Structure formats: structure tokens, C-alpha cells
Amino acid sequence: MKVIEPKSGASLILKKGEILKVTDIEGVQVSDMLLYNLNNHNEKISSGKTFDYEETILLTKGNFLWSNHSNKMVEIIEDTNGRNDFLLAPCDRKTMKHFYNISEYHPSCYENLHKGLEKFGISKETIPSAFNIFMNVTFNQNGKISVDPPTSKAGDYICFKAQMDLIVALTACSALDSNGGSCKSIGYEVVS
Amino acid sequence: MKVIEPKSGASLILKKGEILKVTDIEGVQVSDMLLYNLNNHNEKISSGKTFDYEETILLTKGNFLWSNHSNKMVEIIEDTNGRNDFLLAPCDRKTMKHFYNISEYHPSCYENLHKGLEKFGISKETIPSAFNIFMNVTFNQNGKISVDPPTSKAGDYICFKAQMDLIVALTACSALDSNGGSCKSIGYEVVS
Asked: Which residue range or ranges hold the DUF1989 domain (chains A, B) (predicted)?
């Protein structure tokens, strides 16, 4: 298993049929994930298409994540924690300022996703909302959103089976409140 | 008031401080809306950033719609119906096939948004989830989504005040189920 150090990121190629396992090593830690079609970088993960086709906001084992071109990108085939978020955008420097009043430089998922993607020639301007693994965003019938500590425990994992050849970018999220007050590492491996 | 004919679209420039009024002329009709920064087309409306900063899925009077660059694009200053959606992506030919089994050509919000944007040199590949005015997407605590008929009545309207110079693309939505079974027209005007 490879380790993404706290407040950093990684990227990899995942071929059709391969399975990516993402592990919350210590527990209570979010990992933002982006997917691009390896052979057409204009095709990428889409929260809107996924909500549309899966007909649910909450995505877990048995659900697919879809692209902006209305194609399936991955299937979630295991999810021991069972709670993920696809509502919120990756944290960036302005969200650090807004929610934490941090004005100086601070790592962010947006920056770490960009670092992972730029080696494949993908511009930061194309970054959409990420699939936020282990993130615990609750909402009520009035739509009110709350970012709560992840329910994931040490060793919880989620497995994605690729439905096309993909570029995957992953982070160990850098925002304190999303991760129960401390930023920890994330593990990942291609298991088939 | 200008009229967007059923299953078609329009686009316009809205300068900072101007107010765009969008009217459901007959009632029970959705209008998809996209926003781009007039002076930097890489900056555009973002559901993820909007949910993040507004801390709600349901957006109405008093809420702002935010960009992928974490800036406010418009404020909703009036909303006589009060129900809009920002979860679902614009309908396209594949959604027409998936939900309605329509294989031949059929108009879609995706196509109509693209037609409105291309005159400004904006590629269809950049199209994100739109703000779906008057769209009635309900969800329960388990995340299950349902597309219900709009609650908007003839003459209901919503007003957006621009927080920066914008390109706006609007549609009269082409998907039957989103519009209570029939596709109707939409009105719009810049009122200041």
C-alpha cells in the first residue's frame, strides 16, 4: 500500500477492470478523488451526472460514478465505512480563508489535486467537484448542510472498479473540520 | 420580456449590478442557467462551491451562487416560487435515451446551453452542472432523489443581481418529467 502523507496528494493511471482500494489508515480522514478519461481529458467525473443516474446524493457499494459525458467511470464495489460526499468542492486557499481565517499559504485539496493532474497535462481550470471519500456531510429536509467528522475507523476502505481507462488524483484532505480536527494520511493500492 | 421558446435557449451579457429576472410564463417549467465570468471564461458557476459557502442544498432569496474560483457571481434577490435545484446536470441526448428511451435526435438543455455559449467562444466541454431554476428535486435523509413537477405557477419569477460582469446562458428545459409532462416557454429580462 502506498501512503499519501497528510495534506498532500498522489495520482495514478487505473486501467479498465482494475480495482483501486483507498484506505483510511488511522481513521477519521477524508480523501478527495478526481477521475479523468485517460484517452480524452475533456471527460471527467461529474457530481451532477452521478446524482442524476444513480438517483441518490449518498453513494456507496453498488453505485457508479459517472462522467460529464454520461458514461460510467467506476463502480464502488466495496465500502466498509459507507459514507462519502459528492456535494462539496475541493478545499482551496479561499475556503481556508473563509472557514478558518487562514490568510497565509496552506495546503489544500485543490492544490494537491492540481499537482497530481498537471503531470498528465490537465489544467487546474478543469477541476470539478471531487468525490470526497469518507467525508461526512449531513443534510436535512430543508437542505441545510453540516460538515461532520468522518465516521470512518482505522482500516476502513473503499474499492473502485474502473469502467474505462482512467487518470485518478487522490488527496489526504487538508481541512481540519472535515477530518475531525487533525489531518492524517491516506493509503491506496491497485489490487487487481 | 424576451421569450425562450419551448426546448430552446438564449444567452446574454449581464453587467455587475444589473438584475436578471427569469419568469415561468405558464407555470411548471424549468430553466437551466449557467454563468461565466465575462472577462475570464475559466471562471464559472459551481454547485460544489455554492453548497460549500451557502451551507445549504436549497437556494433561494438571500443566497449567492458562487464560482469555481470561490467568488460570488449573483445574489438571488427575489424568488416567488422558492424552489430550485443545483444537484442535477443539464439533460443531454444520453439522458433522453436513459430516462425516456428516445434514441433519435431530441433537444436538450446541454445542447441549448452550448448554443448560447459558443457565440462567446465557450466550449461545450466546459459546461458544469447548471442552476436549475424552478426545478423541484426532492431528497430524503437517505439521499434518495426524486424529480417532481415544479411547484411554480404562471408568473412566478426569480431575480439575480450580478456580482461581476457575466455571460448568462438560459434554457426552457426539454425534459418532460422535469416540467410536469409538457415543455413550455420561459421569459427573461434585464430589469435594471
From this structure: 3-167
Tens digit of pLDDT for each residue in B139-179? 999 999 999 999 999 999 999 999 999 999 999 999 999 99
In this complex, the residue of A55, A92, A126 whose CB is nearest that of residue B145 is A55
Q: What CA–CA distances, in Å, run from B171 to A11, B90, B108? A: 37, 10, 9
Q: Which residues of B touch A68 (CB under 8 A)?
A: 89, 125, 127
Give me the residues paired with residue B78 across strands: B159
Task: Please tell me the distance in Å from B51's CA to the nearest CA on chain A.
Answer: 6
- Residue B143's region, left for phi above 0, alpha for psi from -120 to 50, else beta, is left
Give chain A's end-to-end CA distance (angstroms, integer): 13
The Cα–Cα gap between B4 and B154 comes to 15
Residue B192 scores a pLDDT above 80: no
Per-residue model confidence as pLDDT tens digits over B23-53: 999 999 999 999 999 999 999 999 999 999 9
Nearest to A74 by CA among A82, A66, A86: A66
Q: What residue spans define the domains of chain B?
A: 2-190
Q: What is the DSSP string of A101-139?
A: ---S----HHHHHHHHHHTTT--GGG--PPEEET-EEEE
Interface contact B56-A145, CB threshold 8 A: yes
For Cα atoms B55, B169, B114, give the angle at the middle one, nearest 5 degrees. 110
Task: Give me chain A's average pLDDT, please.
Answer: 97
Q: Name which of A134, A118, A108, A128 is nearest A24 in CA terms.
A: A134
